[in-house]
Amino acid sequence: MATIHDVAKKAGVSVTTVSRVLNNRGYISEETRRKVYRCMEELNYQPNDIARSLLRKQSNLIGLIIPNVSHPFFAELANHIEYHAYQRGSKILLCNSQLDPVKEQDYIDMLKRNRVDGIIMGSHTLEVDVYRNLGGKIVTFDRQIDVSIPYISSDNYMGGQLATRLLIRKGCRKIAHICGNLKLNMLSNRRTSAFIDEVQQHNIEHIIVQTDMNVFDQKQYERIIRRLFEEHPDIDGIFATSDIIATFAVKICHKLKRRVPEDVRIVGYDDVNAASWLVPALTTVRQPLEEMARSAVDMICRQEEERNREQACVLPVELVERETT
Fold first, then answer.
1. Spatial separation of the C-alpha atoms in residues 122 and 143, rounded to whole Å
2. Is residue 320 part of a domain?
3. Does residue 319 belong to any structural domain of this protein?
4. Residue 38 to residue 48: CA distance in whole angstroms
5. Domain containing residue 77: CATH number
6. Is residue 279 part of a domain?
7. CA-to-CA separations, 321 to 100, 179, 248, in angstroms, rounded
8. I need a labelling partner for 93 at 20 to 30 A (CA). Which of 58, 111, 136, 305 fits?
9. What is the pLDDT of residues 305-325, one digit of tens each?
């Protein structure tokens, strides 16, 4: 494999000159620049990105840690983050933590070794001090880990209000709210807070059902929803805190001969692409996922200037009414 010394020797210049060409530093004549690039091509020389990042003190790499890459929400998020990072000249190192603290720590160590410019965290399973002491730029996604760590989210409380108010306006008199485990410190818990405030204000009978601690384990959803209908057969409205859970609710209603929306009205959350493909199409609360992804990348880049460092970026949500209500 060719080295920078081989390129310098073939081009008849110093190693310092080749380095300046690679990093676009200092004055280099156009003739010398063309000669160096021609020799690099002839030798099939691949620059050492890690060595270059040490020189520039910038790797143009961003780490992205998410809990489940197969989950539609996180798959779409990763797609948008990669796009906007690439537009800014950076690449993504994607880490799939699966909510495993050992795996998450391994990925954090790997990202530090690769000197990433920053980490976007869509998963956190470790003690706060681990993230606080990373020594690099970090932005959390829909998680407020610590007051010193910037985060980005949508307006979860507003989303809970919009979903619950729609079900009440549609005449639902007994509403079930299916959410993640509220023991987890998630900003999405504010959707549940909004739900409680709305049903209590309007004196609506309600039930709250939580998943177990692994909120992304889809195997539990069908069991939870079946038990919900067995114990509360008079439910006529469901607000689920994800489109995936809402989709399972539609499926179980179909199996139980409960018509949607005539017998049960269902609202999801996120507006993943599949929400509009379902039959019936899913009413949901749309998170501005692409804008959130772009903002997360921007926040990593802007942390270079500490005086302009944002601690929070909260974006508005939108109710998208389709056939399930």
1. 7
2. no
3. no
4. 18
5. 3.40.50.2300
6. yes
7. 36, 20, 18
8. 305
9. 554 556 788 999 999 999 999
